[in-house]
Design a protein that fits this description.
The complex is a heterodimer of chains A (about 220) and B (about 240). With about 220 residues, chain A is mostly helical. Chain A is about 80% helix and about 0% strand. Chain B has one domain (about 10-230): Orthogonal Bundle (MetI-like fold), CATH 1.10.3720.10. The longest helix of chain B has about 35 residues, at about 15-50. The chains are: A mainly alpha (about 220), B mainly alpha (about 240).
Chain lengths: ~220, ~240
């Protein structure tokens, strides 16, 4: 039933490895930049708040494919030489996903009440102790389910790097399909693999959400 | 360096490229609207199954949302486009493949089915926010289960979830850009096509970005009016 998949399995899994690699860089960069974007979104300094808000609202109005294309066209001009599609894709994903992660961080930061900080100070904790033992762990717990959900979305989004010719999972599948013409099993296979990973991810996210609710943290 | 870039913003209005972008926009709007109609009604239906007392219907609804949410939209689109016709067998599949504008119809169907799963999830959240008392109050007036959902619960849940539906409606126009991968000549496709002809992809995609921005702002404005019109008195609005 999966004969065409079996014949090309190394080629296909090689593509999946590229997808995982792309996801890894997109997540690392996207979450790191997102944490800063979230800070910018709650800043009281309008020179920080306004440009960051403009960036977030602008990007969130754009289709990801268009952002991928735009960076694909603009990067060679900035770098002064042609860039490989992988690097170009990584940069567009970081810029794009950071706006979504940024909003999650903003909500997380804003969910910390003044009372909690005051309570920590009243026990004699310093600011850095309060941040280290109270603020960051509490905010992180609250954000964790959303962070995992957005990570799954990012994982799915990486498939769109297809459009600039990057040989990730879906691209390689369609290359194989052009030769084998076994669309049902080939795209069925990709769908199943993505489904397994994302389904497990969404279960983990739900687990943390329920755990947080039981502890009264969300 | 040898990589100096000569900007040529003229591609945005010089013929035929300027018209291409507008034609692309028109197709983006068409796909978005029709797919939204599919997603809206199917999503309400699937979401409502989720809260019915019948276990099998609940299972179907849950399975639907899990499957469509956990597979990338691009993969779904490719599946329907390349594998879809084959499901109907060799000869019928070949006939389906000869339909003119098949990619356009498949894009609408795929986008509609995908977005329906998201609408269904919002619908479920909407039902969850309606208290048990309300169900009992409705049943105590002598309404049947069907009438209760049709006349009270579903309309009420719909009004609660208008804000998240606004976001979904915006997202459907953004997601319609994925249709370019099966050759639907919507806005993103057109900006890429201008690059293929002129090598001025940066200007073309920047122009497309501006158009998407205007489209997005228009949708937000229109939905804002709808939100005010249909909001439930006494409930907290958005922001």
């Amino acid at each position: 039933m999966f004969d065409a998949v079996a014949r090309n399995i190394t080629f296909l899994l090689g593509g999946f490895a590229v997808t995982l690699e792309l996801t890894f860089f997109a997540l690392t960069g996207g979450i790191a930049l997102g944490a800063l974007v979230g800070l910018g979104r709650i800043s009281t300094n309008k020179w920080i708040y306004q440009p960051v808000t403009l960036y977030v609202n602008f990007i969130r109005n754009m289709p990801l494919i268009l952002v991928i294309f735009w960076f694909y066209f603009v990067m060679p001009i900035i770098a002064g030489r042609p860039l490989n599609p992988f690097l170009s894709a990584v940069i567009s994903f970081i810029i794009f996903e950071a706006t979504y992660f940024g909003e999650i961080f903003r909500a997380g930061y804003q969910s910390i009440s003044k009372d909690l900080t005051s309570a920590a100070y009243s026990t004699g904790m310093t600011y850095s102790q309060t941040a280290r033992y109270i603020l960051i762990p509490v905010a992180f717990r609250r954000m964790l389910p959303s962070l995992i959900t957005q990570s799954i979305v990012t994982f799915q989004d990486t498939s769109l790097a297809f459009v600039i010719g990057l040989q990730e999972f879906v691209r390689r599948t369609s290359i194989v399909d052009n030769l084998e013409v076994r669309s049902i099993q080939l795209f069925g296979f990709v769908a199943i693999i993505f489904f397994i990973f994302c389904f497990i991810g969404s279960k983990i996210s739900r687990h943390f959400e329920e755990k947080g609710r039981k502890l009264g943290m969300i | 360096m040898g990589f100096a870039y000569d900007f040529d913003w003229g591609v945005l209005w010089r013929q035929p490229y300027g018209i291409w972008l507008l034609q692309g926009l028109w197709l983006t709007i068409k796909i978005g609207f029709v797919a939204w109609i599919v997603a809206f009604f199917l999503g309400i239906f699937i979401g409502t199954l989720r809260v019915t007392p019948w276990r099998w219907l609940r299972f179907i609804s849950t399975a639907y949302t899990e499957i469509f949410r956990n597979i990338p939209f691009l993969v779904q689109l490719f599946f329907w486009y390349y594998a879809g016709p084959m499901i109907f067998g060799e000869s019928l599949g070949r006939q389906i493949n000869q339909i003119v504008g098949l990619n356009f119809y498949v894009a609408i169907l795929a986008l509609g089915l995908y977005t329906a799963s998201r609408v269904a999830e919002h619908m479920r959240a909407g039902f969850a926010s309606i208290s048990r008392d309300q169900y009992q109050a409705v049943l105590s007036t002598g309404m049947t289960q069907y009438k209760m959902y049709r006349h009270v619960i579903v309309p009420y849940a719909l009004r609660i979830i208008i804000p998240p539906l606004t976001t979904e409606f915006l997202t459907i126009f953004k997601n319609s850009s994925v249709a370019m991968t099966i050759g639907v000549a919507e806005l993103t496709f057109m900006s890429y096509r201008i690059d293929a002809e002129t090598f001025h992809g940066l200007e073309a995609t920047s122009g497309a970005m501006l158009i998407y921005l205007i489209l997005g702002l228009t949708v937000v404005r229109v939905m804002g009016v709808i939100e005010t019109r249909f909001k439930i008195p006494g409930m907290i609005g958005r922001e």
